[in-house]
Amino acid sequence: MAIFRQYIAPLLVVLVFVFALVAVSARIFLPSDMAAPAPIEEVSITSQPTPADLPPAHKSAS
């Protein structure tokens, strides 16, 4: 267990850090249109739900 704590776990942490660093730094080499953030489109509601799409209404006993 000491080998894992002294050698393997730190190596895994360093490898994950290096992978994240490479993934983030790779944006420098992408074409300019791919390096930009993804566009956000506004979601619009085009239709109202029909009564067939709605669950049945429960009537209270009052």
Describe the structure.
With 62 residues, the chain is mostly helical. The chain has a domain at 2-29. The protein contains 2 helices and no strands. It has helices spanning 2-25, 32-35. The relative contact order is 0.06. The model has no long low-confidence stretch (mean pLDDT 80).
Helix and strand layout, with pairings?
Elements: H1 2-25, H2 32-35
Features:
single chain; 62 residues; mainly alpha
Q: Residue-averaged pLDDT, rounded?
A: 80
- For the termini, the CA-CA separation is 68 Å
Question: What coarse outline follows from CA principal-axis ratios?
Answer: flat
Query: What proportion of the residues is helical, as a percent range?
Result: 40-55%
Say how many strands there are.
0
Largest sheet: none
Beta-strand proportion? under 5%
- State the secondary-structure class: mainly alpha
Q: What value does the Rg take, in angstroms?
A: 27 Å
Number of helices: 2
Low-confidence stretches: none
State the order of secondary-structure elements, H for helix, E for strand.
HH
Short synopsis of the structure:
It is built from 2 helices and no strands. The chain is an all-alpha fold and 62 residues long.
